[in-house]
Amino acid sequence: MIAVKMPRALVNELLHQAQLGADCEICGLIGARDGVAQHCYPVPNIAVEPQQRFIMDPKTQIDALRQIRARGETLFAIYHSHPTAPAAPSMMDRNEAGYPEALYLIISLNTKGVLEMRGFYIQGEDVAEVALELG
What domains does the chain contain, in order, with CATH numbers? Predict the structure, then answer.
């Protein structure tokens, strides 16, 4: 299994966002420099049923990608939460994964009082979990 280092402060920021939006799936992008995750770019979820899926607001997503480039970063990860489901890609997550080079981070609030975050590379039907290491 591939291991990916994640800065502890960034992981805490993602978990905090998920807690604040506990009723709906939160989502966003993470930029990296030299392969090291640097910044989180939250993007509003505009899905009709945000409790069950996420659709990033296109304008904010494009703005976030511009900010990533302006900071000399590359797209490192796409993150979202599952308020009532495990931290694993749903069939919809797999079907809509449009950035095969990006890590997909999923945060689960499925167990009361416990947050779980797992990472995956999704390329078509292939899903490979990575080990997340706090750095």
Answer: 3-134 (3.40.140.10)
